[in-house]
Amino acid sequence: MSQAIPSSRVGVKINEWYKMIRQFSVPDAEVLKAEVEQDIQQMEEDQDLLIYYSLMCFRHQLMLDYLEPGQTYGNRPTVTELLETIETPQKKLTGLLKYYSLFFRGMYEFDQKEYVEAIGYYREAEKELPFVSDEIEKAEFHFKVAEAYYHMKQTHVSMHHILQALDIYQKNPLYSIRTIQSLFVIAGNYDDFKHYDKALPHLEAALDLAMDIQNDRFIAISLLNIANSYDRSGDDQMAVEHFQKAAKVSREKVPDLLPKVLFGLSWTLCKTGQTQRAFQFIEEGLDQMTAHSHKFYKELFLFLQAVYKETVDERKIHDLLSYFEKKNLHAYIEACARSAAAVFESSCHFEQAAAFYRKVLKAQEDILKGECLYAY
């Protein structure tokens, strides 16, 4: 009878697997995952180690869903199915395992665009942060918290966390993708501060780094973020130019990103009165929905059709704003309501315009009230 493999040895290998996940190195992560699964079959009994393995399977799938959305790997369970596995023993967990359980659940909620829920889990995970000794893991925590607060437009809180994350990532060249993503968050926060001149250098640095590591996905995302920054600053010509560059890379290399790029391009063209061109891209974007699951962007494309077609579909606009309200996406409410108000105002429908401007003001108030999300 062969001797059982010590669980400590398998634990070390799971740690190596997690390193590859955090570096977004799919081939290495896949190899280590397979090795761990083989070792577990011959491992001495250790329930905590099996929970650690289940948590890492969940985190592994989150990575794959982010980098390769829509792609399936054999008969593996989905991230939703894996969620049930890690939720079952959660009440029994303590220390580092409890931290991972809460932190990874927060990441899942963030991917579902449930930002308030995500922040709730991150706050609980933060209580277990003293059990985390690894500097990269601390950077991961600060990055994910910063990302969530950025989307909730809690700009100062986001910047506080992202600078801590970037300081660690920049000292570790293996984490170039997280460095790029951190630069995105910093630039986004500067855009929200309306310091567009400070945002662009960070986005250009991110693009340079993405080109250095020859990562098509992050080249496309960098171009998209540069386009969005130009759009927010009012430079429509540069915005359209960079949206088109991002669309070219997306069509050729990263098709799952294309709906997001086409939405940004379409909206900019609509706002500048180029609705005929915009509606061509809207149709292309909606066609992509059959190949890639993007309910969120489908709703946004339908919003553009509702606002910018010859007869404005006011009911559809209200339906979309209600959808955002349920998810507490106040920044989207503000932007969409502002566009609707401008269209009604331009056609001298001042009563409707005033109603949507009131929604803009309400969304701004809700954003300002957001500090209640992190009040202890």
Automatic annotation (TrEMBL):
Listed Gene3D superfamilies: Tetratricopeptide repeat domain (1.25.40.10)
GO cellular component terms listed in the entry, alphabetical order: cytoplasm
Key words, A-Z: Cytoplasm, Repeat, TPR repeat
Highest taxon of source: Bacteria
Transmembrane parts of this sequence: none
SUPFAM superfamilies hit by this protein: TPR-like (SSF48452)
Subcellular location as annotated: Cytoplasm
PROSITE patterns listed in its UniProt record: TPR
TPR repeat residue intervals: 220-253
Family, as annotated: Belongs to the Rap family.
Full protein name: Response regulator aspartate phosphatase
Species, as recorded: Bacillus subtilis
The organism's taxonomic lineage, starting at the top: Bacteria, Bacillati, Bacillota, Bacilli, Bacillales
